[in-house]
Design a protein that fits this description.
333 residues; Rossmann fold; 12 helices
């Protein structure tokens, strides 16, 4: 039976992976993240699966190839943690899960908007202290607010549909326009500068690449409305944390909701309640009452976990049997 190593195994996903496997492969669950130090743990396996916190850089891929790894199945839509060019050069096939539940992430982003807007965390804390006053809890209506959507792919499209239902005016920035969103929801594509100038809320749904890295920076923040709400459920490095902290301190950014963080590796998905954390920027963000951070779990719904497991095992099966795979990833040209 073909043996598959599953790096960064989390308790929440193991039952779904076992169920999706249906005994087809010998699954070797590894708690540790993939790195140069842990690559040898997959010795004897034909393929591996990786999560967003794993390191599939060129050096690690060379180690994997040397011990016989032929393919990698990413348990995520994002794949910026995998060096596709190096994988192709080594003959290692790579696939991802391009669509597991755009609704999960889009709904989570709107949940962050509502929680921040209506001060739900502060209200809950007050009530649990038997303080039922509502001073300083005034929020605002989403209805007729202008929301800037950066990235109108699968997830951004669902976000448009949800926010249209709230009666929001929708602006978007993307290199590829979706005419269906324009006709159905009155979405208007504009430049990034105009989106920043006009939006009351800005939400990110774009992938991370050379062009999008740190797209939210001091320059783009300076173009935003005073007191803007900024939401990021996409990739941490879309945002320059130092510049965002300055925006929070100045009041330019009035609300910040994050499910991702640029230096989350080694922090998110782990329990640091006993020892704490040493990341000063993250601690600074956590000190603001108008900042809400969740630990990269926007994707975490039962439906999404099932879809991720099913597609991951389907990718593994196609690679193991040398079949065509629609989710095969190719390096950028």
């Amino acid at each position: 039976m073909i043996k598959i190593a599953i790096y960064s195994t989390h308790p929440f996903e193991k039952p779904y992976l076992d169920e999706a496997n249906k005994g087809r492969f010998e699954l070797h669950f590894i708690d540790e993240a993939l790195s140069a130090a842990t690559a040898a743990l997959s010795k004897g396996c034909k393929g591996i699966t990786v999560f967003t916190s794993d390191d599939a850089s060129a050096t690690v891929l060379e180690l994997l190839k040397a011990q016989g790894i032929e393919f990698i199945a990413a348990r995520s839509a994002g794949y910026d943690h995998i060096d596709l060019a190096k994988a192709a050069a080594l003959g290692i096939k790579v696939a991802n899960v391009p669509e597991y539940s755009p609704h999960a992430i889009a709904e989570h982003s709107v949940a962050l908007m509502l929680a921040l807007d209506r001060h739900l965390i502060a209200s809950d804390k007050k009530v649990k202290q038997y303080d039922f006053t509502i001073d300083e809890l005034a929020g605002f209506n989403l209805h007729y607010k202008t929301v800037g959507i950066i990235g109108t792919g699968r997830i951004g499209a669902v976000a448009c549909k949800i926010l249209f239902g709230f009666g929001c005016k929708l602006l978007a920035y993307d290199i590829k326009e979706n005419e269906t969103l324009v006709s159905k929801y009155g979405l208007k594509y504009v430049s990034l500068e105009e989106l920043c100038r006009q939006s009351d809320i800005i939400s990110l749904y774009t992938p991370l690449n050379a062009q999008s890295t740190y797209m939210i920076n001091s320059e783009t923040i300076s173009q935003m409305k005073q007191g803007v709400m900024l939401i990021n459920t996409a990739r941490g490095k879309l945002i320059n944390t130092t510049d965002v902290l300055e925006g929070l301190n100045s009041g330019k950014i009035g609300y910040l909701g994050l499910d991702v963080y640029e230096n989350e590796k080694g922090i998110f998905f782990h329990d640091h309640s006993q020892k704490g954390i040493t990341d000063e920027k993250l601690k600074a963000l956590m000190g603001f009452p108008n900042v809400l951070i969740t630990s990269h779990h926007a994707f975490l719904t039962k439906e999404a976990l099932k879809n991720i497991a099913d597609t991951t095992l389907s990718n593994i099966e196609s690679f193991a049997n040398d079949q065509a795979n629609p989710n095969l990833l190719q390096p950028a040209k």
